[in-house]
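Researcher: Structure prediction, please.
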Amino acid sequence: LNKPNGLFIDENQKLVANMNEGIVYRFDPQQKKMEKWTEGTPSCDGISIDGKGNFFISNWHGEVYFVKPDGKNFKILDTKSEKINAADLEYAQGPELLLVPTFFGNKVEAYKVKYK
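Model: Predicted structure follows.
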């Protein structure tokens, strides 16, 4: 991998964000194989699950993507014009809040996320 960065591991899957390629891979430890899961997420960094099988992926430049289980992704946040970087992130399921550290901004932004 070319600069692996973000990791997500649970009992069902293992994901690795490859920062320089903008690709998140799904790793199968039994088969010792990695396959592309989603791409087009430049400088990908943090990975968090929403409890419904969907994911949020941040990138260093200040973008956050919503990713469906099939790997299709949608940009839902872009703070590049404000020069706010996004580091790792976390989704709090109970209050439906996406928590995004701003890295150099020295704060954590919270966004209410609602969808069906």
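Model: The first strand starts at residue 4 and ends at 9.
Researcher: Thanks, that helps.
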